[in-house]
Amino acid sequence: MTSDPPILRMAVVVSRSASRRRWLFRILAVAVASMTAFVLAEMALRLFVSDTRSPYIYDEFTGTRLRPGHRFVFKSEGYSSNVINSRGLRDREHSLAKPAGTLRIAILGDSFSEAFQVAQDKTFWAVLERELQAMPEYRDQTVEVINFGVSGFGTIQEWQMLEHSARDYSPDLVLLAFLPGNDVRNNSRQLEPDHRRPFARLKDGKLELDVSFRDDPLEKR
Q: In angstroms, rounded to a whole number, what is the distance separating the alpha carbons of residues 79 and 215?
């Protein structure tokens, strides 16, 4: 029995090597294609699918705030498609540094300012910005109205929002949207049933801030 010629043995080895390379290439191509598909699917979900988490998160100063970057559709009362900006505001992105020649107005308020019930361009603060910008008095300025409203806020929370967020934007004017129906009650621990917020209390005849909600483990969770 004779062995295979060297050239034939070499051809078999080369053939097997080429076959292995083809299979490796196919496996690599499938892996790359699968990874690309997963990445594209993730991007599509982030862009077009609403987040099912609550739009509200814990905040050490106000008790609660809007979740930065949150994307969702509001349907329970009215309708709006929302993207909370990177700073946790129901508004478009705004730079912290105020551009030259800009008149900045900060809006503090509760659900009437947050206004999930309507599209963002139909909120009162968006209309205010457009109406002011159209006035001859502001022809040489850029009017910028920034919304800091969060549902359920009382004036103590709005004050904390001013101190720890709104002031960073150097507003020229601050407008406080006040609702007589519950804004007074929201500030009193005795009157407000929801204690997941800061309150004001009298001590030795002076008002002081009550932030005992920070000690509640359920609130932090």
A: 36
